[in-house]
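Input for the complex:
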Amino acid sequence: MDDLRRQHLQTPGRDDLRSRLHARLLAGLPAEALLTDPDVTASYAHDMASFCTAGTPAAVVLPRTVEQVQHVLRTATELRVPVVPQGARTGLSGGANATDDCIVLSLVKMDRILEVDPVDRIAVVEPGVVNAVLSRAVAERGLYYPPDPSSWETCTIGGNIGTASGGLCCVKYGVTAEYVLGLDVVLADGRLLTTGRRTAKGVAGYDLTRLFVGSEGSLGVVVKAVLALKPQPPAQLALAAEFPSAAAACAAVCAIMERGHTPSLLELMDRTTVQAVNRMARMGLPDTTEALLLCAFDTPDPAADLAAVGELCAAAGATEVVPAADAAESELLLQARRLSLTALETIKSATMIDDVCVPRTRLAEMLDGTAAVAEKYGLTIGVCAHAGDGNTHPVVCFDHTDEDESRRARESFDEIMALGLALGGTITGEHGVGVLKKEWLARELGPVGLELQRGIKATFDPLGLLNPGKLF
Amino acid sequence: MDDLRRQHLQTPGRDDLRSRLHARLLAGLPAEALLTDPDVTASYAHDMASFCTAGTPAAVVLPRTVEQVQHVLRTATELRVPVVPQGARTGLSGGANATDDCIVLSLVKMDRILEVDPVDRIAVVEPGVVNAVLSRAVAERGLYYPPDPSSWETCTIGGNIGTASGGLCCVKYGVTAEYVLGLDVVLADGRLLTTGRRTAKGVAGYDLTRLFVGSEGSLGVVVKAVLALKPQPPAQLALAAEFPSAAAACAAVCAIMERGHTPSLLELMDRTTVQAVNRMARMGLPDTTEALLLCAFDTPDPAADLAAVGELCAAAGATEVVPAADAAESELLLQARRLSLTALETIKSATMIDDVCVPRTRLAEMLDGTAAVAEKYGLTIGVCAHAGDGNTHPVVCFDHTDEDESRRARESFDEIMALGLALGGTITGEHGVGVLKKEWLARELGPVGLELQRGIKATFDPLGLLNPGKLF
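Predicted:
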């Protein structure tokens, strides 16, 4: 199969096409913006997802201006070459993976923060700005950009918009979608579209801005974004509560939300996750707990809020409730949570990270069901979860050189998604569909929804050149 | 002209078509769901906007079930009859106005609250539920549905979704769009589409839910909505501040937002508005003030927040700052604001209410510019504004029997929208486009945006039967 593909790549027709493509691209790009060395371009072929095929790009382009992006898209349309837009490739669904003979359009060099306005509470940025860079820049002005995916130190705002990223903040502050007010987008044919607004409100026509958020580069290439900012909240204060079962921890989550609390963070780590984090970082977390709940508040009186939540945890069966003494101790607890995925990745040679989100009333069933799936397939599946959102991250750990274990990993992954749908949830709370969850998207949307989504795709990209093979 | 039209209506062809339509509709509807008496159907022909043409409906249908809505849409598709979906007709842009020979599809009888869940913090409702009815029902469970358009005692959730309504709450809580998680929608051909989710997060495919919000019934008919709820905040406490000029009041607004405050309400009433409210309701507002700013907090310590805001107002030039003593006094102040539109309507025989939203840094220019427009055209234009959002409501008062004054009213209205766009704003912050702002939508979107919006419309409604002639 590989030999056949290589042969195909070496046919003169393909080489001619590549040369022509490179020449046409260089007509509107500086030489350093075009990468064609196959050893180099191969490193742009895929994001961080397992089990996702990735093709061989014909070229990688790193534009610095809107005009250069427009040139790339015009060239792609002229030559009918697919384009795969990319940020930092920290995605977990293969949404940024190359297709064969495509142009990989990496936006990482368009990384300027163009404007931060504390009165209008907006930032205007290019797509390659790293999430943490923006967060720190606005913090210096007393402002707060909430979306904080685990990869926030490396992932880009453009990538966050493409996948509608979430993070730990969402239980109080919502996902990326809620912070995107307006966009400049280069369409498949190279035309520039401006959507949305700089204002706090606006309802002029269909909400094209929101349509682009989470569209995984399949409708256009975001080249500028107007983002909403919040005032910086007080430092958050956290507590940790140990539970004898995942179900008991979930009961506490439900009680906290039912009583009207608004925590700034409400996270769950199961026993496997706690132990993995301890092994990796000697955090001194309670090694024997079945479920560890972390809750934080950034309210004016977080200690009082934590005391109330501590009582609800105790009533739900917590065996121990430990409030952090101060912001530094709180930060340590949150670091433990942030290390979860990395720690779980050390268990076996490979992982698949799921992203199912269920109504929080069904969270206990989701966690117990996931444990049953792990047992059925004889696998280790550690779970951390944005519990306050009902958004779970079951991490299937497996040896990728073991064919049978790999097969079981994939099957268990699918079974977890089926469980999520059966519980009234969605297959993806914040990671997106990409290649990994394509067939599951069709199941979640149903035929009518799928047909309309395809109709929208055809309206924006009639030649099907933008990130083909993703989503559906 | 009227004679010609009547003649046309009485041609046998049209009568035949109507009879056939009525018969086909009755095949799937109970008799009481169909209104055909022209005297009755005429009362469904328009919403509350001035200067918007309205046609003569062929029938009004008041369905009670999803199946009945599907039957209506199937019939409409079969017979190629346009359908105008309607709520309580409190809209201000003519978006619910009938077109000639259409079916008016009034959703007001589908008014059940199907579910309120305090753990998942959602309500599931039919489209005809009145905003205030929902707000009170969820308040009984300790929950809060923020969107509060002025018409909240009569307007329906379906109408709110259609126009993406705002209200006084938006400066802290955002608009209707932010509370719609999922929808059931009957498409133009009668098929049922389910979009979105019941979960806190979800990014599976393009955001069709958000596409329907603000689409003014032009893409499908919403028959069920999953709405997000918040925990009920503490009662808000308000202050009123008098300013010697609109610009000074706007400077205070900017200072309040720049300092990171999060008021639950930040409203402005100009002198004309204050005087009109006093005349109507003897509220004892300061009759000579140039601009009255109302600010409220629903935080744990609203008095402290109000004290800080009071200082900012004084620094910006407020001549008097009067904090309310308690919740009851606060409520009185808010009532004064809520009466503004009604009070301004008493000045002349007719009004046109504009809805331009600008970045809050440009609010002073917007208000001064509006005053200049009023002077230029020799008209009274009272302004109240959701100042914290930069969302102004210039109310052009005119005598509709005076042809010249009516012309000047329309011209001034247009000039105000031009000013809003020039200041980086949008033509509509929360009222929608309807018939009233059609040509202005095209200007705001530009040709590329307009083409894509039309493409989306064609994807959902290829025959163009849903609310034709609205938006674009």
